[in-house]
Fold this protein.
Amino acid sequence: MYLSREEEMMWNGEFGDIIERAIKAVVRYGELMGADRLVKISHAHVSGISIFNIGDAGLSFIEDVAEGNARFRVYTTANPYAAVDTTFEGRAFNDVIVAKQRRIIESLRKLGATAFTCAPYYVRRPGLGEHLAWAESNAVLYANSVVGAMTNREGGPIALLEALIGRAPNYGMHLRDRRVPDYIVNVPKPSNYVEAAVIGYLIGRLNPTQTPLVRGVPKGIPEDWVRAMLAGFGASSHQPLMLIDGISPDLKHLKCLIPESLERVSLEERNIREFIKDHECSTADLLVAGCPHLSPNELPEIVARAVSVIRSGKVRARECWIITGDFVSDSMLKRVGALGDSRVKILKNVCPVVTRLNEIGVNSVCTDSAKALHYMPKLAGVNAYLLTSLR
């Protein structure tokens, strides 16, 4: 692999042992992926920071890096962490788990992480053609598919190492000619947020290893619906890109390059209705909204709606957690908190999906997120159901 003069200095240890180890690991990874060189990045996003996901080994890795003299060389954000400081009906996580999660957060802050959210595009929106090293599926898809930035779907440890050297291997989504569709899927017009999320999820299940060109999404569709669709797609697919007709900037360069011979498939309205019917429920221990994290525009409406459905009994849940990030101002939190019901909690910077909720007495969750529906049984240890009455 070609290395610039500065990269050779990193390789030779002139920036310290941590940086030397980081660039050698990234180069090896890049060579395995067929990269010819490294590309400078301007923003890294690290995933996999829940103590329940990475355990003691992951904690030791992050602390070892933080104890060296290296710091992130580029603007860096990280995923939300486990909601270990939150109680469910007064039941809390044990002190050992809480302490370990706090050590992970402190180490990442020491390295230079500026925010903890699964929606880093609300903290710092990247630009068209900007090279990133992001490791959160919905964020990667938003960056590539909506903004036209360029990032592979990195693993959490690799993204951390790339943040340390400010470089990523030049392959995959960093190459313009790889950002092309493999097949075309026609979809029905979604009538609400949950339908949009389910459409994305079902597209991913059609072919989880290929990039779709999606047609049928109406112009002017709300931004949060697009985000929900991408998050659902990212849960059921391995792909870092969904090309959406009328939305994805890459399509401006591809109009004459999309062959007529591409396979065409369709999702029908009945597919969406059947999926929702099979997974919908309005009774659970916990109601969760905010996967991905709610934007400042969404938060007031969702809080008001959650309070309404809880008080009316339309949703029978013992508590409701509404999740957002640091990009929401304290004044807004105070304002929406005034709507409150003691059963409705607004949480920042955390993720119930990567929290072992069964350890604090939660057995079932209702959510408006196809992504959370997919992952919660595996990661949170609970039964999960779709909820349509919040949107």
Remarks:
- The mean pLDDT is 96.
- The domain at 5-176 is CATH 3.30.499 (Aconitase; domain 3).
- The chain has three domains: 5-176, 180-275, 280-386.
- The CA atoms of residues 40 and 167 lie 5 Å apart.
